[in-house]
Write a structure and sequence with these properties.
The structure is a homotrimer. By secondary structure, the first copy, chain A, is mostly helical. Chain A has one domain. Chain A is globular. The N terminus of chain A is likely disordered.
């Protein structure tokens, strides 16, 4: 069961692995930022957890359903492992930046597709599901940045939420064309990962909005 | 239907126009602040949206009902138009400051009355409805400021939430006196707008709370 | 009735007094920080209220139940009294620091046990109840710090959430041993208070997580 969603996606045990990878990568990103701010162990754990489960929690609150993480302690455990990992491999972690970037992109893709499908299962219109999918993917990072009193990164940098949006549009086209659900999931998720990778590789970002002349 | 509330207010098509005006003005205020911080287009859109729908969303979550914006895409569309507007009229927007101020006051008044009445429709006591009304009016601006890592403006400046409170008290008196609902709505909303305008015109604010001597 | 929880705890009128003390101390801590930032009266009241009811509100939203403060205006009243208190006794308040520290510890202990038991009453597993208990105790302070655009204190300082965790573990052991509920509540709450007092008295904190070498 992925993030509480029951469907064809969850019949593949492969998805469980991806979910661990995504949760782990999201938690790591929170814990590393907390370390920069000299948080204590508890603070680092909380920021890691917020990053990993924040998006899905806001989605579930808006959908008026039980937050997904209450049904399995795996997210707590996974965040604990991430904390241990950052402590033990502190000196080597910077060399793994590319690995974590890929993990993060995979997590982003999975979380988005899961959020989208969970919302569709509540008979919401597609545009609501797309918002929920994007939110599931990015809101954890926003909460992470707010909890360390910084301006959320995704509001100023790179293609991130836009990659999720591209994935949602891809999913919509697949749905309309009647493509098999699993294929559609894989296609949309892949598009998110590829968009992320290419945009970072080639330094492509959204245009900034210009301030008024003062 | 205004913000999901069904009642005499919503029978006047006039209210739809006011709701567009309010949503537009709130979104503009978020987008302009995002522009100052050099957010990208996505970030500016999100901050605009948070400002416009944040208060009503928190209210609906606390009332355990479906967030109002899920039932109509107009809020997304209106925020998109506001974003386009800020981009296209960037050079002239500062001259419209007074117009936006009036729009914002109208939006504040409408959101407060709508939040109040929606909560009363849930059979909550009046003091809960007043809190919800004020929250519907001001919480979007608080979320806006938190999302750009600034101290919320309304905690330090001017009569803002207090204007909403005055409107709620006026509504209560009207309710007790058995005044017609539509008249009561108009009276309370007008009081909020007038209070806002006068307080800004004459530079009246709440007293600050003094820090302790250190 | 404490924070909406019905149980043996609430049969002791003593608990009502403790709840007032806890709410008062939490509100005071928010209002004092707001005063430092030169908030106006409204802003100070809101920050005080957020500190006092924020944790329980997030818990109730996640549990999909009506926020506890909607059923009694006592929390609004108590925060109002706290605001008056800070204004009137501004010059003497710093001398009461130790008193407020003790009140705060008592509030923390009560809120944690109440949050824990309320969640158990929803048939959640114990680990979920422990998270909710800790959240009830500490999330108000996190919201307080976010609303004044500062990094949450509890992420960097002292034993605070860890004291709540110790109390939850104590409660779990008592539950397993079949200890009388009231005794278990008192034991767990006392452990939280004692842990807080000792950790501050002896300057004990959690280890910080080390940043990566850059």
């Amino acid at each position: 069961m992925i993030l509480g969603f029951v469907g064809s996606f969850s019949d593949i045990p492969f998805v469980d692995i991806i979910e661990w990878i995504g949760t782990f990568a999201f938690a790591i990103s929170g814990i590393r930022l907390a370390a920069k701010k000299e948080f204590d162990l508890f603070g680092a754990y909380v920021v890691g957890l917020l990053t990993a489960i924040g998006g899905g929690t806001i989605r579930d609150v808006l959908l008026q359903t039980t937050p997904f993480w209450m049904s399995s302690s795996r997210y707590m455990v996974c965040t604990g492992i991430a904390l241990l990992f950052v402590i033990v491999f502190r000196k080597y972690i910077v060399r793994l930046n590319i690995t974590f970037f890929i993990f993060d992109a995979i997590g982003l893709a999975l979380f988005t597709v899961v959020g989208l499908e969970k919302t569709l299962a509540f008979h919401s219109p597609f545009w609501v599901a797309a918002i929920m999918g994007i939110m599931t993917g990015v809101a954890g990072g926003v909460l992470r940045d707010i909890s360390i009193a910084e301006i959320p990164l995704i509001f100023r940098n790179e293609i991130y939420a836009s990659a999720c949006l591209a994935g949602c549009l891809c999913y919509y086209v697949g749905l309309r064309l009647g493509i098999d659900q699993t294929v559609n999931q894989l296609l949309s998720a892949s598009l998110i990962v590829i968009t992320r990778v290419l945009s970072v590789r080639f330094g492509i970002g959204l245009p900034k909005i210009k301030p008024e002349d003062s």
